[in-house]
Design goal:
Layout (H helix, E strand, L loop, with lengths): L37 E5 L25 E10 L6 H19 L3 E9 L3 H9 L4 H18 L6 E4 L3 H16 L3 E11 L4 E3 L18 E10 L5 H10 L4 E2 L1 H12 L5 E2 L1 E2 L7 E2 L2 E6 L1 H5 L2 H4 L10 H6 L6 E5 L3 H14 L8 E4 L2 E3 L2 E2 L10 H8 L1 H11 L6 E2 L2 H31 L7 H4 L4 H18 L3 H22 L1 H7 L1 H25 L4 H10 L4 H5 L28 E2 L1 H8 L10 E2 L12
C-alpha cells in the first residue's frame, strides 16, 4: 500500500518539531509466515484529505479562565461486573481529578463502558439476555460501584450511545479518506478475551495468551485494515522527542521495543459479528472494538443535546491531558491510538500512564481468570475511605501490588484510625475539657517560633509535588508524616499536664491545641483527593460546613486557616478502628503455622454527602 504521509501529521503533537523523515512507500507484508494477507481493495484513488490540526486543539482555558485538565480511565468492558482492578484505576483517576480541582483547574474526568464485541455477545447469550439488556445491566453496576467508592466523574460514556456511533463513523471516514484503510484476507491466532490477533512468538505453550492463560483460536477473515506500519517513523519521533508521552519510563521502554521490532497493519473490522457499529458503506462488517472504544474519549466530551460531530467534540476539551490505563492495554493506547489520531489529523493526548496489576496469589486479578477480589464486598465491609487509601498508599503507582486482608487491616488501623483519627479525637477532647471547645488564638499566632509549622509546610509541598508527578503512594506518605509530626508534638508538649499546672503553662497548652488542630485541618485538605469522606468528617469536626469543605482549594493547605474564637464540634471518632472477630484474635495468639485468614468487622461512620465537583 502506498504510504504517503499526510502533512497534517507533522503537527499532531504541539511539543514536537515537524517530522522530516519520509516514510517507506513499499507495500505492507507480514514478517511472520503465520499471517497471510491477500490485498483486495485500497481506499481512495490517491486523493488525500488534509486536516489542519491547529483548529482542533484543546482549549487551554475553560470558559471561566481556568486551565482545562482532561483525564480518562479505560472504558471498561462489560462482559462481566466490575472487579477490583477496574476499581483501582478509577480510584487513582478520581484522586488525580480531585487534586487537579484543588489547583483550580477545570477538570473533565471521563470514564465509561465499552459495550461492543464478541465477548459481550457471548456473555449476554450465556446469561440468557440479549446484548443490549446485558450492557444496560453491567454498565449500571459500574455506575453503582463508582457511587459507593465516591468517584466524582464528570462524563460517563457508553459505546452504545448514539452520539458515540456518530463520532466513530466520522472518524473512520476521515481515516479512510486519508488512504489508511484497505481490505484484505487475514489468517492468524486470535485471543477472544483480548479481542486481538496475536503473534506466535508472544504466545505461551499450546498457543496460550500470556495475559489470559487461554488458547488462541485460528481464524481467517476478510476484513478492513488500518495501515499502522505507515506510522512507524512518526511514532519513533514522538517517543524520542517527547519521552514523557508514555509513563512511567519503563512503560516507555516497552512501547519503544514494540515499535522498534516493526509495526504491522491491524484489522479494524469483523465479518462474523453483528454486535457492533457497522462499517460505513459496508453493513456486512462491524468496526473492531478498539477502533470503536478509543473514540469514547472524544465522544464523551459532547452533550446529548449538542450537534454530534468531531469538530464540536474536539473543541470541548481535546486533547486529553492524561490517559490512565492498565499495562495490559498499553499497546492500544500508546501505539494504535496515536497512529489513528495522526491519520485523522487530530492532536495526540499529552500523556499515557500505564499502571501495574493488582495481584492475588501472585496473579493478575481479572474477570477472564476468575480470581477477582469483589470491590462491592470490600467497600461494604470496610467503607470507601479505607479501600481508597489502602490501594493508593500501599501500591506504588505504576507497579504491581498485592492484596492481603491482614495487611489491609493493619495499614488502615495504623494510619487512619490511630495516626490521624486518634490525634483529632484526643485533641478535641482536651479542647472541650479545658477551653469549652473554643480556640483561644489564631493558628498563625499560636505557631510563632514553633518548628512544627515549618515541618508541616515542607511536607505539604512534598505531597503536592508527589500528586503532580502521579506518585500517589508518596503523596499519602507525606501526609502521614504530617500526622506523625502532630502526634510527636502532642506527646512532647503533653498539654494535658500543662493544663494541670495552670497559669502560663495552661495558656501555652491552649495554644498547643490550636497548633495541632491546624495540623489536622491541613491534613484534611491534603488528604481529600484520596479519602474525601474522611477529610469531610475531619473538616466538619473543626466547625466547618459541607459547603465550606466543597469549596476548599490547595491554597487551604497554607498554615493559618483556624482563627481565634472558632468553636469546634464535639469529639467523635472520624474513622472507626477495624476490629478482628474473637476467632481471629484467638488465632493471632496461636503459633503462626498454617493459620487461616479470619474475618473482620468494622463500623463505618455515617458521612454527609460530598459534592462531585
Amino acid at each position: 500500500m502506498a504510504a504517503r504521509l499526510n502533512t497534517s501529521l507533522h503537527n499532531a503533537l504541539s511539543l514536537l518539531n515537524p517530522f522530516n523523515t519520509p516514510l517507506s512507500t513499499k507495500p505492507f507484508y507480514s514478517r511472520n509466515s503465520s499471517f497471510r494477507f491477500s490485498k483486495k481493495f485500497q481506499s481512495s484513488s490517491g486523493k488525500r484529505a488534509l486536516y489542519c490540526t491547529s483548529s482542533f486543539g484543546s482549549q487551554e482555558n475553560g470558559v471561566d479562565g481556568a486551565e482545562t485538565f482532561v483525564l480518562t480511565t479505560p472504558l471498561y468492558y462489560v462482559n462481566a461486573p466490575p472487579h477490583m482492578g477496574s476499581a483501582y484505576t478509577t480510584i487513582a483517576a478520581d484522586s488525580i481529578a480531585r487534586f487537579q480541582r484543588l489547583l483550580g483547574k477545570k477538570v473533565i474526568f471521563i470514564t465509561g463502558t465499552d459495550e461492543h464485541g464478541e465477548k459481550i455477545a457471548t456473555s449476554a447469550a450465556a446469561n440468557g439476555r440479549n446484548p443490549a439488556e446485558h450492557c444496560d445491566l453491567i454498565s449500571q453496576s459500574y455506575r453503582s460501584l463508582w457511587k459507593d467508592l465516591d468517584i466524582a466523574y464528570d462524563k460517563f460514556i457508553r459505546t452504545t450511545d448514539p452520539k458515540h456511533e456518530a463520532i466513530v463513523k466520522e472518524f473512520y471516514t476521515r481515516v479512510f479518506a486519508n488512504g489508511d484503510i484497505y481490505r484484505a484476507d487475514y489468517e492468524g491466532l486470535y485471543c477472544v478475551n483480548c479481542e486481538e490477533y496475536k503473534d506466535e512468538k508472544e504466545l505461551l505453550e499450546n498457543n496460550c495468551c500470556p495475559i489470559h492463560q487461554a488458547p488462541c483460536v485460528a481464524r481467517k477473515e476478510d476484513n478492513y485494515f488500518f495501515a499502522l506500519s505507515k506510522y512507524q517513523k512518526p511514532l519513533e519521533e514522538i517517543l524520542s522527542q517527547n519521552p514523557r508521552f508514555v509513563q512511567p519510563s519503563y512503560r516507555l521502554n516497552e512501547v519503544q521495543s514494540w515499535i522498534n521490532s516493526g509495526l504491522r497493519d491491524f484489522s479494524i473490522s469483523r465479518a462474523l459479528l453483528d454486535w457492533g457499529i457497522p462499517v460505513p458503506d459496508d453493513d456486512k462488517q462491524t468496526i473492531y472494538v478498539w477502533f470503536d472504544a478509543l473514540l469514547g474519549y472524544i465522544s464523551a466530551l459532547t452533550e446529548d443535546n449538542e450537534q454530534q460531530n468531531l469538530e464540536t467534540a474536539l473543541s470541548l476539551g481535546w486533547p486529553a491531558s492524561l490517559h490512565l490505563i492498565g499495562k495490559d492495554i498499553l499497546r492500544f493506547h500508546a501505539v494504535y491510538w496515536p497512529a489513528m489520531l495522526m491519520s485523522a489529523g487530530l492532536n495526540l493526548p499529552k500523556m499515557v500512564f500505564g499502571h501495574g496489576f493488582l495481584t492475588k496469589d501472585g496473579m493478575k486479578m481479572g474477570k477472564s481468570l476468575g480470581n477477582t477480589l469483589e470491590p462491592f464486598e470490600l467497600v461494604q465491609k470496610f467503607g470507601p475511605d479505607a479501600v481508597r487509601y489502602f490501594f493508593l498508599r500501599e501500591v506504588e503507582f505504576g507497579n504491581d501490588g498485592d492484596y492481603s486482608e491482614d495487611r489491609f487491616i493493619k495499614i488502615v488501623n495504623a494510619h487512619l484510625a490511630n495516626t490521624i483519627g486518634n490525634l483529632l479525637n484526643r485533641t478535641l477532647g482536651l479542647l472541650k475539657k479545658n477551653c469549652e471547645s473554643t480556640l483561644v488564638v489564631d493558628s498563625t499566632i499560636a505557631a510563632e517560633g514553633v518548628p512544627l509549622k515549618d515541618t508541616v509546610e515542607k511536607l505539604v509541598e512534598k505531597a503536592r509535588t508527589n500528586y503532580e508527578t502521579l506518585s500517589l503512594s508518596s503523596a499519602c506518605e507525606a501526609i502521614l508524616e504530617i500526622g506523625n509530626a502532630g502526634n510527636t508534638y502532642m506527646d512532647q508538649r503533653a498539654p494535658w499536664f500543662l493544663f494541670k499546672q495552670g497559669g502560663d503553662s495552661a495558656e501555652a497548652a491552649a495554644k498547643d491545641l490550636v497548633i495541632i488542630l491546624e495540623v489536622m485541618r491541613i491534613i484534611a485538605v491534603a488528604l481529600s483527593p484520596v479519602a474525601p469522606c474522611l477529610s469531610l468528617r475531619i473538616y466538619s469536626q473543626l466547625g466547618y460546613s459541607v459547603d465550606q469543605f466543597n469549596s476548599i482549594s490547595w491554597n487551604d493547605t497554607k498554615w493559618g486557616g483556624l482563627k481565634g474564637g472558632q468553636v469546634m464540634e464535639q469529639a467523635s471518632p472520624v474513622f472507626a478502628r477495624i476490629e478482628l472477630n474473637p476467632e481471629k484474635e484467638e488465632e493471632e495468639k496461636k503459633p503462626k503455622v498454617g493459620k487461616k485468614t479470619g474475618k473482620a468487622k468494622v463500623k463505618v461512620e455515617q458521612t454527609p454527602t460530598v459534592a462531585e465537583a
